[in-house]
């Protein structure tokens, strides 16, 4: 039986940090997290966010399951090195990547064509579109294949009654592997009713396209053992959206913790029939 593990990139702040801490609390799976700097500090912060200082044993157990490695999605050599580190920690002969969260993102809003800056737009595509594409290239091989034995049913794979999220509900890891790439509703061409945000919209439309293409690859390589989806988390109160907090209704501006709970609800409820598409935090499909 092949043993599962989790990948989150990046995990240093925002949704990635909240997601990694949540998964440390709600599962007993090992996790590979990534950051571009202060790896020790990121690990310490994640362990602290997922445990209580009063429970030293819990802290030690969590720290032993968490691995933080350097990765910069604009530097392919670092993505490759991180994937090689993952293969050392979790040999493909005995392990498989069960949950992968590709979350890199940056936003340079442009309301008019004249506001588009070439270098800023190039950075947007490098991080938002090419970044996830490089993660697919180097980490995709660690997802299960058609012949991978997915019958590992111990608590590490499915969570236990004591493995609960902050709402008190147990998180059940899906029986198939899921690759999730962070997208956005503005990446929908059919749903573009307001215009603006040229490079960000286009970069997220690219995310939806490469996710669909990657899923078609997984259909052949992994069959029903693995699938890929894109995901719109809504407007989350992170540094990415800080410029727009005042323009968003209070009930539509989500905390990272709420966003993570909704994300995992969607992951847990998707089946292989839902593969290759973009889903939002309500579990509704975002049109292409």
From TrEMBL:
GO terms for molecular function: oxidoreductase activity. InterPro entries: Fungal_SecMetab_SDRs, NAD(P)-bd_dom_sf, SDR_fam. Signal peptide: none annotated. One of its GO terms (cellular component) is cytoplasm. Belongs to the short-chain dehydrogenases/reductases (SDR) family. This is Oxidoreductase. It comes from Xylaria hypoxylon.
């Amino acid at each position: 039986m092949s043993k599962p593990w989790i990948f989150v990139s990046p995990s240093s702040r925002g949704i990635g940090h909240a997601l990694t801490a949540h998964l440390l609390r709600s599962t007993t799976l090992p996790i590979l997290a990534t950051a571009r700097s202060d790896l020790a500090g990121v690990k310490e912060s994640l362990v602290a966010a997922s445990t209580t200082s009063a429970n030293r044993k819990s802290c030690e157990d969590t720290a032993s399951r968490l691995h933080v490695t350097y990765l910069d999605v604009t530097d392919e050599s670092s993505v490759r090195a991180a994937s090689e580190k993952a293969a050392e920690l979790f040999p493909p002969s005995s392990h498989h990547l069960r949950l992968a969260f590709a979350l890199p993102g940056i936003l340079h809003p442009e309301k008019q064509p004249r506001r588009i800056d070439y270098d800023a737009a190039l950075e947007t595509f490098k991080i938002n579109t090419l970044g996830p594409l490089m993660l697919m290239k180097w980490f995709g091989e660690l997802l299960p294949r058609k012949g991978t034995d997915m019958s590992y049913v111990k608590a590490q794979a499915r969570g236990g009654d004591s493995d609960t999220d902050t709402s008190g509900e147990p998180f059940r890891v899906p029986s198939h592997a899921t690759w999730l790439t962070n997208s956005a509703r503005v990446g929908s061409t059919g749903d573009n009713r307001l215009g603006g945000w040229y490079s960000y919209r286009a970069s997220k439309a690219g995310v939806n396209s490469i996710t669909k293409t990657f899923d078609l690859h997984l259909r052949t390589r992994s069959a029903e053992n693995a699938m890929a989806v894109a995901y719109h988390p809504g407007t989350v109160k992170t540094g990415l959206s800080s410029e727009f907090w005042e323009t968003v209704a209070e009930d539509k501006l989500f905390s990272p913790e709420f966003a993570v709970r909704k994300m995992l609800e969607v992951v847990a409820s998707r089946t292989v029939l839902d593969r290759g598409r973009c889903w939002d935090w309500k579990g509704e499909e975002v049109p292409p």
